[in-house]
Amino acid sequence: MNIKIFSAEHSQKNNHSFQKIKKIKNNDFNGEIWIVGGFEEKTKEIKDLFDKTVNVFEENFFKGFKKNDFDSLEKFEENLKILNESISEEKEKINNKVLQNGGIIIAIFADDNLHFSLCGTPEIYFIRNGKFAKVSEGIFEKVKNKDLFINVASGDLRNNDKIILSTTRILRYATGNQIASNISGGVLEAAESMKFILPEEESCSVVLFHIKGFQTLPFKENQEQGKENVRKGFFANFSAGQKGPKFSLKLKNWYMQNFENQNPHKKIAALFLILLSLLLVASFVGMLSNRQDGKESEKYAQEITQMKKDLISVETKRLEGKIDAANLLIVRIEKNAREITKEIGSSPILRSEVMQILQNARNLKDEVNKITRISGAKVLVDLKSIRENIDLKGIFEYEKEQFIFGKKELFKILSANGEIKNVSNLIIDSDDEIIDGSAFATKNELLFLSKNGRVIEFKNDEASFANTKDTAFKKAIALSTFSKYMYLLDPLENQIWKYEKQESGFTEALPYNLELDIENAVSFAIDGNIFVLTNKGEIKKIYRGKGYPYNIANIPPKELLGASKIYTNENLSKFYLLDNPHNRILVMSKEDEQTYYERQIVIEDVSEIRDFWVDAELNRLFFIDKTKLYEIGL
């Protein structure tokens, strides 16, 4: 089970509502249980209902759990039965009006499947390949059922599916396409978009999930025999008005109680009446909404028209190469859009129009700033398969093989197919760990730097501590090699220390930096020159100890503030900068006196890029997160 949680939060805008989120997990269980609650009214009955729901699943779901013999769907239905029996008193005390303004979702992610149940009017949305579907209709729970919770849906999940659990009806404020588009980005963008979609005064609980690494399987029905198959097929078609993927609905409790014993003509007539009633209610609500929205539209027509004009101006400035001016306009559009949404409240038409403007602005921002967004990067190997508590730190290449290191171990992997050739333990103290590594090609060995200032040599599959003519190596944050020399980056001493490799160990440290201020350095790279990256978004050039002016063009320095690594070598004509907070890699030109921004690659479905390297011959980029090695084309 591999779930990436975009955002899990509840928004308590007043003291009258009830909002709560609970996650239940067992270390041996390949999945998670999420219970999400939200009601406009905060009463003892509501609190008891939520608490009992949590207690039932905490106390009963994992009873008798056996890792290789556990049917999560069967256990889910068993717990729902227990839950419905235990909350009979609460059901009598909670009237239908309360359930129309809130509810509880129980969602179980297990063995590449999602099963969920709900009571009240919360909603569950599902996005696959950019297509949106609402998989909780919010209709049948309004009928007086025997049970408060109904086992609503069950289905298989695919890689990169996105799921939203929400106690409020988000479709009142944005269309399905807008929701899908606005959470298509990375973690920060998705969370921010959801906050933007919902009005400021809205109290709600919302959880966004991004499914990763599942088998690519179609959604399928949980097969049952006889009449149940016919019933489920009918309800699947009944919900087919929503475009996009479908869940197989299991509304057997409601259906059996109301229609099971009626003849076919009465069943059809009853269902027709329900559909007709829903259409009449929707039409009436729509007329009232359109009248209100008409007045609101007149009030904000000028601001909306101006934002649309600004979008055209952004495209014009982009074509003219006026990047800074285009970005300033985008900032103004986004600011105005947010201000309007604060004022328009829950007006669906206006909010939909402003949301579309905002999405157009974001798309233009990608074009203006030459941003390529990548999802579904190829996974070459998942090292968690051979070591459970893996925590990868860095990666580099040597002689067509990739070397990935964690805190205390080294993995050798073939670049061609991701085959794991070897796993080695690096000899370091229990209170120490590896922080950087590099190939030392001219000496046919690998070098590693530890947190405690030790240098480890790795040769012929054996690791040993390196020696220096000094008492100890200088403390440093990064290590690199060039020709017969090893270099250590030491910001505390404002220095780059140069060591020459000899037959036995290294020489004493020689100061390489003679004049530049590099106290804010975070990374460095060598191609004959040494380029130092600072936490102020600067790149400084040093050659033979002397500093040279080096200008950064076509990008504001603040854009580089999150960069933690600079990468280049004598075979590359560009710099590559890793910006961890934004999960992106910036591509910069490499010239004698300056560098200028060319483009950036945003990796959208990886939790955190830890390190990377670039294959100049194949024009490929390899990167790691905490457990996996990935590959993308440049």
The CATH C-level name of the largest domain is Mainly Beta
Instruction: State the low-pLDDT regions, or none.
Output: 139-144, 214-261, 280-289
> What count of structural domains?
3
Which CATH-level-2 architecture of the largest domain? Answer: 7 Propeller
What fold name stands as the CATH topology of the largest domain? Answer: Methylamine Dehydrogenase, Chain H
Radius of gyration: 29 Å
Beta-strand percent range: 25-35%
Largest sheet: 6 strands, antiparallel
H/I helix tally: 11
Gap between N and C termini, in Å? 30 Å
Write out the strand line-up for the largest beta sheet, numbering strands in chain order.
2-3-4-5-8-11
Structural shape: globular
Tell how many strands the DSSP assignment holds: 37
User: Could you state the CATH homologous superfamily of the largest domain?
Assistant: YVTN repeat-like/Quinoprotein amine dehydrogenase
Structural class: alpha+beta
* Mean pLDDT metric: 80
